[in-house]
Design a protein that fits this description.
The protein is built from 30 helices and 15 strands. The longest helix is centred in the C-terminal third of the chain and has 37 residues, at 577-613.
Length: 749
């Protein structure tokens, strides 16, 4: 601000008093309407201005003031008769705040107003803030604070904009800033190709959603300071988002992915289901429903369809209604062939209600013969838990020993020092089991047995240790561990999700039955008692022939009917096994005819159209000498022989020793689909049936992963979106979710 106090404005009577400005380059008022002689050189005979120029305006060389401007700015009026008359007693206020801006922008000072907004272009990219009482200019690009004083210059602000890296990045591709595009290497089918990089904010947010959903990161992480810094270090253009925005993006992607999956399921003929229930730590009941099917490439697929809250009480009708609503929502209510559940009584009521609904609509596939599949992993768990009660005292001593050592770091250190001194080759650590999970009990016994000699030496160093197992206890634990090892291997085979398991069912169950038969002849009482309890449970659930188990084995070209004929006499009583063999063959014929009837109408229509267009083909061809020779010297396959008869008469397929364990029955049927046109379709659907509920339990159980506190704190609809979409994306990208802590310890052990 400059103030001109005048009694009479003369050549050397101008007195300027500087106030509230830091620099003044030039003040020039041009185009004087009165006379060129009215323009006076500032500094000529003006000591005040010279002093001002030295102290406050070091860069000033010259400034001019027009007396006409002073006249027009004061309260006095010029005498119309005097061209050069001077105003008197005038107090003229000249706004000097943005003089340098006016000069740079080419604004005539005569047009300047006494009060106006900031007009420098830098203020489009800066904002004025107050920081600890001081005014600062904050860059909108990098958020850096620079010095600012009202009326001050903006040169340092312009200099900052020229060097601001985030600003440079935002100007790529625009009229301002660098013109050179960024190049990136795009790898396509193993070939590296150069491509022009273009920052896509929408694509970044899409990938961000996938990362958070697949790896189950908490939404709040997107607001973490160092997460933002990390993303900006990868690309300065990254724009942070709030967790609410990320959640909305997740829900939008869930809706989009669900529609895509609906379209894919529309082309599937038959779908098998698995389901299980779980209660969160907020006491909210959830039902997980998973669909299993075979895609067009003969690959086994599974997708979590629903992870929805289930209102209590969890009755059979409530479960059936919830499943029906889910199937209608997905549009697959007419495609369900089987459902695999555990042995809860409420599940039996649910299955009965669902069967009645499907029968009413005439959509009960396979005649309902194999609609319900009992979870064999659950049955094995019940069987083993009953058997382990007979050696409860042995297991309890080992469990308390491990617990005692793991509760104190000093005890555990002393135990490990003994292991080192004995130079034991084991690298397994002590594991404390979960009593309700026999597989963790097996892992605990296995580790304890390898460190058996250490426990006795530790007892000598710690008199407070009171749970040392006796030699007899160790022998019993070793015997039980051998049995649990077999069960553990069988369960791993059953729990596979990337390969068919229904064809492996019978052979694995036969291993368990054979082991129980051998153990029943043992002379030790505890083995006999343990075996008796487990055989009772085995006969309860597998006393009647499991058709999925049997038909799946027949459709494995390595077994066919041979495994049935071999194992059934050993599994079932002598007076009953033939009945079960006959049931398997009859059910096999029944299912085959069902598939044959579906295609027969299409085939007949195609045949009739072919004969109509080519009548000559319908005429009976005469036999020649070659045909008579073939009939005489070759075995002719009857024209009415079914595909299933042809398949069973061929004999079993014997892969090489290295290929036997990795043999994929689906690949065999895919290769022979032209030969067995109808039977291959039947094999596709039967082999896709899961025999455990592990796929559904993996959403919240120790068999896969446990929903943590973060997931449980979300709204049920959000939980469903995250769980379902996370499963879909992991299947699409082949990502395996890490096991929970308990399973990791077991694997390390």
């Amino acid at each position: 601000m400059a103030i001109c106090n005048t009694d009479t404005v003369g050549d050397s009577e101008l007195v300027f008093i500087a106030a509230k400005f830091t620099s003044l380059k030039k003040l020039c008022i041009k185009n004087c309407p009165i006379s060129d002689t009215g323009v006076k050189s500032v500094g000529e005979g003006c000591p005040s201005l010279v002093k001002l120029k030295v102290k406050r305006c070091r860069g000033v060389t010259k400034a001019s003031v027009c007396t006409a401007f002073l006249h027009n700015s004061c309260d006095a009026q010029l005498s119309p008769s005097s061209e050069m008359s001077r105003p008197t007693k005038a107090n003229i206020v000249i706004d000097m705040e943005d003089v340098d801006k006016d000069d740079e922008m080419g604004i005539d000072a005569t047009e300047a107003k006494t009060s106006r907004k900031k007009r420098s272009v830098v203020w489009k990219e800066f904002e004025i803030i107050t920081n600890s009482g001081d005014m600062k200019a904050r860059c909108n690009h990098c958020k850096h604070n620079l010095a600012y004083k009202k009326g001050g210059a903006t040169t340092h602000l312009k200099r900052h904009l020229k060097l601001c890296t985030p600003r440079k990045a935002t100007l790529v591709g625009k009229d301002k800033g660098p013109k050179q595009s960024l190049l990136s290497f795009d790898v396509t089918e193993g070939d590296e190709m150069l491509s022009i990089f273009k920052y896509d904010k929408g694509k970044v947010r899409e990938e961000l959603v996938k990362m958070f959903v697949v790896h189950e990161y908490p939404f709040r992480m997107v607001e973490h300071e160092f997460f933002t810094k990390f993303c900006r270090s990868l690309n300065p253009k990254y724009e942070p988002i709030k967790r609410q925005t990320l959640k909305l993006d997740c829900m939008k992607m869930y809706i989009s992915e669900k529609e895509s999956l609906k379209l894919a399921l529309a082309g599937i003929n038959k779908i098998s289901l698995t389901s299980d229930l779980w209660t969160s730590n907020q006491s909210i009941g959830y039902m997980c429903l998973t669909g299993h099917f075979m895609d067009s490439e003969w690959k086994l697929q599974k997708r979590i369809l629903n992870f929805c809250p289930l209102e209590p009480p969890h009755t059979g009708l409530a479960i059936a209604d919830s499943i029906s609503e889910c199937l209608i929502d997905w549009g697959i209510e007419d495609k369900i062939s089987t459902i695999t559940l555990d042995n809860a009584s409420s599940n039996d009521l649910a299955v009965r209600a669902l069967k009645e609904n499907f029968e009413a609509k005439e959509k009960l596939h396979f005649g309902g013969k194999i609609f319900l599949v009992r979870c064999c992993a659950h049955i094995l768990n019940l069987m083993v838990q009953d058997g382990l009660t007979e050696i409860r005292d042995v297991i309890e001593n080992i469990r308390e020993s491990v617990k005692y050592l793991k509760l104190s770091p000093s005890r555990l250190y002393k135990f490990n020092e003994i292991v080192k001194s004995l130079k034991l080759s084991t690298s397994k650590r002590l594991i404390l089991d979960v009593p309700t999970r026999w597989n963790s009990t097996y892992a605990m016994l296995e580790c304890a047995l390898e460190n058996k000699s250490v426990f006795s030496r530790y007892k000598e160093r710690d008199y407070n240790y009171k749970w040392l197992p006796s030699d007899e206890d160790w022998k019993r634990a070793a015997e039980v561990s051998k049995f649990l090892e077999v069960i553990n291997d069988v369960t791993k085979v059953f729990s596979g999700r990337k390969y068919p398991t229904s064809n492996l069912f019978l052979r694995q169950i036969w291993k368990v039955r054979k082991m129980l038969n051998d153990m029943s002849t043992d002379n030790r009482d505890f083995v006999k008692r343990m075996t008796l309890k487990m055989k009772e449970k085995f006969d309860k659930y597998w006393g009647e022939c499991n058709l999925v188990m049997a038909i799946g084995a027949v459709l494995d070209p390595r077994y066919k009917m041979k495994l049935i004929l071999y194992s059934f006499p050993k599994i079932y009583p002598a007076d009953d096994f033939q009945r079960h063999i006959d049931d398997v063959r009859e059910s096999l014929e029944f299912l085959y005819k069902e598939y044959l009837s579906v295609d027969s109408q299409i085939n007949s229509s195609m045949s009739s159209s072919t004969y109509d267009s080519n009548p000559s083909q319908a005429k009976k061809q005469k036999t020649d000498d070659f045909d008579e020779w073939v009939i005489t010297n070759s075995d002719i396959i009857p024209g009415n022989k079914s595909e299933i008869d042809m398949y069973l008469d061929e004999g079993v397929y014997k892969p090489g020793n290295e290929e036997y364990e990795d043999f994929d029955a689906l690949n065999w049927w895919k290769a022979n689909s032209l030969k067995f046109r109808h039977l291959s379709k039947m094999a596709r659907d039967i082999l896709s049936i899961p025999i455990t509920t592990v796929a559904s339990e993996s959403a919240f159980s120790a068999g896969g992963r446990v929903l943590d506190q973060y997931r449980s704190s979300l709204k049920p609809e959000t939980v469903q979106a995250l769980i379902c979409m996370g499963d879909w994306l992991r299947q699409d990208f082949g990502v395996e979710l890490a096991s929970n802590v308990e399973n990791e310890c077991m694997q390390e052990g």
